[in-house]
Batch of 2 targets.
Target 1
Amino acid sequence: MALIRNSLLFICFVVQLNATSILSNYENAKIELEEYIENKKKEVNPRFRPLYHVAPPVGWMNDPNGFSFHNGEFHLFYQFYPYDSVWGPMHWGHVSSPDLVHWKQLPTALLPEKEQCFSGSAISQENGLTLMYTGRVAIDVEPYFNETQYLAFSDDGINFYKYDGNPVLSRAPNGSPDFRDPKIWMYEDYYYVVIGSQTTDKRGRVLLYKSSDMKSWNFLSVLGESNGDMGYMWECPDFFELDGKFVLLMSPQGLEPQGDRYKNTHQTGYIIGNFNYDTNEFEQEVAFQEIDFGHDFYAATTTEVNGKRYLIGWFSMWDEPHPEDVDGWAGMATLVRELRIVGSRITMQPVEEIVTLRNQIVLDSDIEPNQILVFGKAVELIINSDINQKVDLLLEGRKGGSKAWLRWDPETRKVTIDRGSGDIRQVEWYPNGSIHWQIFLDTSSLELFCGEGEVVFSSRVYALGGWKLTNESNQTVHIKANSLKRSTPE
Ligand SMILES: *[C@@H]1O[C@H](CO)[C@@H](O)[C@H](O)[C@H]1NC(C)=O
Ligand SMILES: *[C@@H]1O[C@H](CO)[C@@H](O)[C@H](O)[C@H]1NC(C)=O
Ligand SMILES: *[C@@H]1O[C@H](CO)[C@@H](O)[C@H](O)[C@H]1NC(C)=O
Ligand SMILES: *[C@@H]1O[C@H](CO)[C@@H](O)[C@H](O)[C@H]1NC(C)=O
């Protein structure tokens, strides 16, 4: 008996020691990772690196995560694999900003251990910033993964430690293995979270839970669910009040293309409706609509500060080439946009503070027949023209790279971004009065905001050596161009 007790004590002692060394291993791994990043950065080829969009310092990024405001600063995390410019075991990269325009790189916030750190959100509290994310663990039986929800805490908003009682939410009501991307918020005295999941017959759905402490959660309701033609999985849900309505934003996978719609590998869009915190029912008013019509936009997420709702998305797409990957990095984030509901749709406008990037006006005139204009790598174009005639502008790299045509056709009332070889995205647009386009060009990206942001396109276009614009329209097009300053780290 005594012998057994002694060996038990011994075992406990060894377990204790291991626990201590695992913790310090984690802290050591963080330090080593930052050293690795600092060194590896020097090998990155800058030719396609954005000057005012968030991108990983090295390696791969996908979904934006944990978009939040804490202690006077915005925080943005992102799905990050530092060791290669392809997807790999997921970390959380981290940047912060005073104004949603100027970004500072911070140490990697979460490193994978037993679990990969999949997408999630953040909630600011008096005593710190808390992250809620999906821990994805490999298992031996189909589907070979187990997704449960984890917490991590931080006192200073920079150093995060994982809760030792993880996971805090380990099973969807129907046992679906697809159970990820928690978006947490607070309402009155309770925490709420929406999580992306799937019905047993493989239709996408969003689950709503409630908690008083973030550690123990009660399932409330299915907030929304595909009726069969809205995809097999709804990723990255977000749920918020906007202009008197409620919005369910999510990224459905598996939508079939329908004409001009749903042409990307996966889509991102929203449903507008009404919600009641007493019944937990979301009553849909306007069916699913895409939120961005470009080639490269996914996994958008929002945060709210002082009554303004801000959105940021992943500015890349699954299962598409990422030409920058040979340069030592891949994937970036879009500009932050402010959301409004106008009529039955959401409008997106670039965050107001974007004007602080304006360096100088480099052009403000009508462009001549066949005139070619050249710009630097970071430029804002404001285009005005007659709505009753076609617009056709070619944008390409001064020293090569890829191309895109921006078109307006008054007969079809469609705005088009054509990357050549039939790689077209287009959508109907009903502007009042005249054509007004605001275009943000960075080293490898194009964002087109039409009118008041009723229609927005985000597409990657890889311009080598700055931008060149050719007027291929038959009408007078007025262009104002501002060169833009750098606002993201080298
Ligand atoms: C997934 O993990 C949870 C929490 O650790 C555990 O309760 C559950 O049994 C696991 N599921 C599978 C299928 O391994
Ligand atoms: C349409 O015109 C009205 C009145 O000039 C203006 O208030 C509104 O913002 C415009 N809407 C769009 C979508 O441009
Ligand atoms: C411009 O006019 C020419 C000649 O009328 C026509 O062939 C061409 O398609 C027009 N281009 C656009 C963009 O409207
Ligand atoms: C653009 O070029 C066409 C001819 O290619 C010309 O007719 C048109 O006037 C030009 N636009 C401007 C603004 O000069």
Target 2
Amino acid sequence: MKRGKCVKCGSTNVRRGPKPNMWRNSTGMIPLGSAWGTNVGVRNYICADCGYVESYVVNDEDREKLRKKWKLASERDDD
Ligand SMILES: [Zn+2]
């Protein structure tokens, strides 16, 4: 998707949203699941033909928060 091609339908009509901005919250946020203020901003890529959406945490500091806070998807889900 980042290279402009939809992974679902193959269309090249992929649109990129604005960079995340914590103050305006204009693009979308993922809550980390604890106290206030622990959201990470995402940048969205949307296929304008089929509507598929991909979101990326583009900030490396935010990705580090996720690495510390969230479990690997391959771990047993016992929550
Ligand atoms: Zn598509």
